Amino acid sequence: MVKVRAARADEAEALTGLVMRSKAYWGYDAGFLAACAGELRIRAEDVTARRVVVAEDEGGAVLGLASLEGSPPHAVLGLLFVEPAAIGRGVGRLLYRDVLRRAVALGVRGLAIESDPHAAGFYRAMGARAGEVRPGIGADPTALVPFEVAPVPLADWAREWTGGGRAVHLGNVAEFNAQFADATLDAEQRPAHHYASLAAFYGPDPAVLVLPRAVPRGWTDLVGRQLGWSDVEVYDGLVERGPGLTDAVRARPALAARLTGFGLPLVPWGLTRPFAALTGRPWQPRELRYESKSAAHEMFGRVLAEGGHPGIVLPAQWRAATRRAAARLLSVRAEAGESTVLKSEHGVGGSGTTVVTPECLRAAGGARALLRRLPRGPLLVEEYVDDPDGGDGPRDLTYDGFVGPDGRVHEVGGAVMEVRDGCYAGATVGPGVVPEWAEKPLTAFGAAVGRELAASGYRGWFDVDFVTAGGRRLAPTETNLRLTGPSIAFMVAARLDALRGAGHLVRIVDRVELGARLPEAQLDELCTDLARECARLGAVFVPAIPTGAFEPSPWLGVLVAAHSRGVLDAAEARVRAAARAVDALFGPPAASWCHGRN
User: Fold this and answer.
1) What is the pLDDT of residues 541-590, one digit of tens each?
2) If DSSP states are collapsed to H, E and C, what string results for 535-569?
3) 315: cis peptide before it, omega within 30°?
4) Residues with Cβ within 8 Å of residue 421, at least 6 apart in sequence
5) Which end of the chain is more exposed for a tag (fewer CB within 10 A), N or C?
6) Is 398 within 8 Å of 466 (Cβ atoms)?
7) Distance of alpha carbon 456 from alpha carbon 286, whole angstroms
8) For residues 495 and 201, what is the distance between their CA atoms, to the nearest angstrom?
9) Degrees to nearest 5, angle at CA 194 with 192 and 197
10) Cα 123 to Cα 120: distance, rounded to the nearest angstrom
11) Would the pTM count as exceeding 0.90?
């Protein structure tokens, strides 16, 4: 295992030799190296003054070194060199991340790098942004390439979420869904078991993952490298079908004792009775009452009645006591030329939600014929909120936050969701993602909902989903009292900002169709190649849901991250192109299907 320690003054001469060997690795001639020797020399007095650290292996052999020079708020990564025999073993990545960590601790907010041209790809892959290029630099193949980084600590909300440290993540997605017994959800919870893979990202730095389905070993290794994790224990394959992950843990007393004996927070997808029994947390099912869409709608109305939210409009909603009543409401609204949204009480990700236009109703043969095609169970009939302004702005937004154990509401932020045909398909988070006009009303209303949830006794993550309405207004549509796809993107953004510098945009894409099942080794190879190719763009690729690759209609859930929208879009395009290449190898693409949001 490689570790980083402070360099010693008596190592100065040996470290200078390492620097020169590393520089020579790139094929520079003796004359050029001689000219660089004075600048690259490390003197005994430099070791402390330049804050030099070394990376060494278990045997004490020095594999590389780095220096952090200057005074806050600006500093310089003066040296970062790796012994030639150790290049490609992650030593440079370890040293770079250590420099950023130390820079944050010192209060540095701007870190300058002048890179050897051969190392420019490394710094780009590590998230450094290209700095201002000096005149003539492109004409000199030996000229140093400037980069800039903005070191930041882990976001305050992320530290509050897990108490500032590592946590045990329990992928109880199916268990959470099953407690509502909604007819729109798969009784076997197969999609939910796939989405349980997102447990890897329930917090910035997991210590343990507990998963219903078996996951590829290479997956956790790659994700750990991308997100700078320490060793993570994985307990998987506990439930093949059905919702009982926590019960499966409790049925294994040794495992239950280990998970609860770490002294670390246990973070679930959402609160359930079995989870409460495992952790000794009092079970209060009324905490989750606003997971109900009709109860959430009533809460939105109360919040708006208190005033102070001029940018928010609430769509009308009616609870249909019978299917016949729903049919009458649909028919009356269609005759008036109005579109309608039909919702189940607890569907996820668009499951159980259907937009019905007058044209759809006529094509279906009337309201009763249309309703016969939908799952049984209670129906909510809601006014369809149109956006007559249209335009290029996003249609679907969300606010994320959480209520801490003390009842305090913590704001996480706003995100833009991608919704296709009523189905959630992904989300993007990061600076400038939410339109400027929407930020204030979205944040103010989301925080007000958080205070209502806290007053009701709820403790945990929540979101509020919105659609845009005319006149630059937002219409709240539901709350989710659990983690969600956008929350996963927020977690990864917080982690990458701390590892690579501030300002990451992160996009979670729920399904990238592969078109053919991949053996585990080929899946690992595909993901490793995509990580490498995205790094060349200056982006980060993280496979978020690997288990879908083994389904008869195979797919991957992925995360991509970058510091700019252009690079983010390019990375997503590259991932999709690779998926199409797999399709070409193994046959025509499988048909897509609408899945539940988790």
Assistant:
1) 999 999 999 998 899 999 999 999 999 999 999 999 998 888 666 544 44
2) HHHCCEEEEEECHHHHCCCCEEEEEEEECCHHHHH
3) no
4) 350, 594
5) N
6) yes
7) 8
8) 10
9) 110
10) 5
11) yes
